[in-house]
Amino acid sequence: MKVMSAIESCRTAALGGHIARCEDCAHTTIAYNSCRNRHCPKCQGAAARTWMEEREAELLPVPYFHIVFTLPAAIGDIAYQNKRVIYDLLFKASAEAMLTIAADPKHLGARIAITAVLHTWGSAMTHHPHVHMIVPGGGLSQDGKRWIAAKPNFFLPVLVLSKLFRRLMLQKLAAAHEAGKLQFFGERAHLADAQAFSAFLAPPKKTRWFVYSKRPFARPKAVLAYLSRYTHRVAISNRRLIAADESGVTFKVKDYRIEGPGRYTTMTLDTGEFIRRFLLHVLPKGLHRIRHYGLLASSAKAEMVAKARELLSLPPTEPDADQDVAREHVQQCPCCGGRMHIIETFEPGAHPNHDSSAHVGALRIDTS
Fold this sequence. Notes:
Elements: H1 2-9, E1 17-22, E2 28-32, H2 44-55, E3 64-70, H3 73-81, H4 83-103, E4 113-121, E5 127-136, E6 138-140, E7 147-149, H5 158-178, H6 194-201, E8 211-213, H7 221-227, E9 241-245, E10 248-254, E11 264-269, H8 271-279, E12 290-294, H9 301-311, H10 323-327, E13 340-346
Antiparallel strand pairs: 1-2, 1-13, 3-5, 3-8, 4-5, 4-12, 6-7, 9-10, 10-11
Helix pairs in contact: 3-4, 4-5, 5-6
């Protein structure tokens, strides 16, 4: 599988790399290239930092809310066999619910901005599709002439959101089935029949769907730090891994049903099962896991953000002349802090002509 092949080759000689030498003390390091696969736990840091820098100009000086929309287990089950279709419907139904309720004069009566991020896993890497949304606490009036602020600790009623999200998602699932966009295999093969699928959707119509709204962030800048933990996260990060040996893979897990220190524990899975669970969360090629809605929709984003900043009495953001320079990765010498310069590059599968200063093998450095 391409994903596993990329992760296995990441920062090894298989992908090539370069050699850098300090201009002051001549310390030399070998840096292997990153695979840059979006599912690789080692390659998301640089991508997240770049993305966050691009979002900073859109930040508004208002409280931000974190909203989570989760698919019920039954729908999540069929989502695994229909990732592209159902993940897309999850985005659309949750965004439509937010935009509709926010625009209702009985609630906020405003056009809001949404950044939505798809996650498909729980702490134990089981299949658990849900969308995280970061939303400014307010929006533009329908005529675009004023900013309507949300209440300090309340954005939109979650019960109302839950009911509309449920109705929209079930409607969209039924329409997708009628259009022949859904496929079913194994124990779910019978759901290809229209009547069977209608019966399958009947119980979820009567249950409460999970929508959760967290307390607003203390300050807008905290949004960026928080978002960086979500936008480019993969099913499991390296820091959660504890051990890997012939008995399996041990990693940290968190039980969200328990409060306090007891919610943190460890789990050991057979290596094959660990890899299977990781691969559950590989997204279809081309499926965007970060999407923007409302005022942040790409067609009108610049205009809408500028209008919001104007109504909030903020000066327009100016491009930073040094932005590209600031983003440029300057590697510092681990010995003296001097600037490292590339003195050699080598192709995938080739061996460098120079040795590292330590002479104990290559130092793996993220060059993404």
